[in-house]
Amino acid sequence: MASPMLDAALRLAALGWRVHPCEPRGKRPLLPRWPERATDDPEALRSWWTRWPDANPAVATGEGSGLVVLDIDGDEGWRSMERLEELHGGALPPTLKVATSRGEHWYFRHPGGHVGNGTAIHGFDGLDVRADGGYVLGAGSVHPSGHVYEFVVEPNCPLGVLRELVSKLPEAPAVLCGTRTTSRARAATVAPPDGWGWLESAAGVSR
């Protein structure tokens, strides 16, 4: 029997991201040692989703997937974004986004070194960062409220287009990365990469 959740997991893995299952309509990981076991291997994913066909697909963030994700949660998070962008020195670079139940996940390219996880970053409520050792529910997952997580792109966006967007992810701004254990740390004033203009206008972000 076809599993929409397996299809979603395979789609995420095809983007080069490490995936693992979480409880259906929930966020609790189903795998012991999920940080080591999360994978983009289709056979492993098929095995897990055969066992748990309704499991939510989660994306392991961090250097393994090449991701730092900013989690904007609710009205409080959108209000905090104005303060975060002031600290950054301007708007964060446009990037790939996933609509969540109360806000959005903004996906950025991991800058290398160690980037930790944080809640209420810089003391700004409603803004969390998921990086090394963290994870987020991926597009296709179902929130306990019934909301389906979806990429903020054109309807039924082809996998090839998503791959192209992932290849152009801007590096995570320093304001999201805290103190990193690498000499590459620097203040990020990243210009939007070519090809993102249409995505920013298509997103129609409602704050």
Written account of the structure:
This protein has helices spanning 4-13, 34-37, 42-51, 74-88, 159-167, 174-177, 197-203, and strands spanning 18-22, 56-60, 67-73, 96-99, 103-109, 127-130, 135-137, 150-151. It is an alpha+beta fold and 207 residues long. The protein has one domain. A five-stranded antiparallel β-sheet has the order 6-3-5-4-8, with helices on one face. The protein starts with a helix and ends with a helix.
Determine the strand fraction and express it as a percent band: 15-25%
Strand order of the largest sheet: 6-3-5-4-8
Radius of gyration: 16 Å
Q: Total number of β-strand segments?
A: 8
Bin the helical content.
Answer: 25-40%
Approximate shape = globular
Mean pLDDT level: 87
Q: What attributes characterize this protein structure?
A:
207 residues, alpha+beta, 7 helices, 29% helix, globular, disordered C terminus
Outline of the structure:
This protein is 29% helix and 18% strand. With 207 residues, the protein is α+β, with helices and mostly antiparallel strands. It is globular and about 45 Å long.
Which helices and strands occur, and which strands form pairs?
Blueprint: H1 4-13, E1 18-22, H2 34-37, H3 42-51, E2 56-60, E3 67-73, H4 74-88, E4 96-99, E5 103-109, E6 127-130, E7 135-137, E8 150-151, H5 159-167, H6 174-177, H7 197-203
Antiparallel strand pairs: 1-2, 2-7, 3-5, 3-6, 4-5, 4-8
Helix pairs in contact: 1-3
